[in-house]
Amino acid sequence: MAAMRVDGTPTRTIWPLANADAVEIIDQTALPHEYRVLRLASLEEAAQAICSMQVRGAPLIGVTAAYGVALAMAQGDDDASLLTAVDRLAATRPTAVNLRWALARMRRCLLPLAPSTRAEAAWQEAARIADEDVEQCRQIGKHGLQLLSRRAGECGRLAIMTHCNAGWLATVDHGTALAPVYAAFEAGIDVHVWVSETRPRNQGLLTAWELAQHGVPHTLHADNAAGLLLARGDIDAVIVGADRIAANGDVANKIGTYLKALAAYLKALAAAAAAVPFYVAAPRSTIDFSCPSGAAIPIEERAADELRVMHGRDAAGARGQLQQLPCSEAIVNPAFDVTPAKLVNTLITERGCCPASHDGLLALYPEERHG
Ligand code: MRU
Q1: Residue identifier of the C-alpha nearest atom 14 of ligand 1
Q2: pTM over 0.85
Q3: Domains of the chain, CATH where assigned
Q4: What is the pLDDT of residues 201-215, one digit of tens each?
Q5: Which candidate in 133, 223, 243, 288 is catalytic?
């Protein structure tokens, strides 16, 4: 049973439909205004859901891609169908390595099999990837709780800043950055979450929505308020997720993460006080040991309309959109940035915590040590 809840009902973010060759997802483009479930019944629908960010967040897009392969196999199980499905899904979003990790695993599992057995095996493997994600996020919560409990002891409270949505909605259940926060809340720690709006896609609104569903105290703020909040001592720790962690510990995450890491670090300079600890929580599927440093991580550029057009509800409650600047304005819209390992105090993974460094990662994942 899922740990996280919608209106009190335990719910995952994606689930297969028995005997229907389809999965259902929570349409994240409708939140926080409307809770809407969507059915995906083909490879193309799965690919579109990832591109349009109806599903989003590194672990969840990996799981959706795995189910996308299962949907493709239900329609054609020869080698060409498998390889086309993997290529189509890999082309949806470039930065979160979980997507490629899940597709590589599906390909490895299915290619050696007899075509007639692939569809069934694909559903099973995708379900295993989803279940493993749930367990890994649960473990991240457990390990992160130790860190947060210590911090709460030092500070006498726990004011946590986060960015984007690295909660339950970005995974299958529990979340990455928010898993330790939920664990702290369950443990009775006096936790308050400072939620960054995260322009232009406003994933902070998703974070506020899911925290509200679980009764976790929180306050939303504009991205540009983060520096002030950190500098004046309102925040005890920053915790974010990741879309890709390079072998040296550099972290790609939602655009704006780097500025928060800098502000947390610079507090020591500006206030002659200790820096605010900056934690990154992510499962193994987010770590790319083949990527030497953040400089090699591809950064997704998204459509200019994400800045140009605001979405919301009008005074009568009807959904609508508002164009806030002319089409003639030049716009750049990088979706991620890279925070250098030096600015990250601790990585929290399903195997425990480590320094953000090559040695730190290899101590947790010794099987990645080659030669
Ligand atoms: O563009 P998005 O919304 O998919 O980006 C998501 C993030 O950057 C999250 O912080 C990241 O995937 C970590 S999620 C557990």
Answers
A1: 166
A2: yes
A3: 5-133 (1.20.120.420), 141-368 (3.40.50.10470)
A4: 999 999 999 999 999
A5: 243
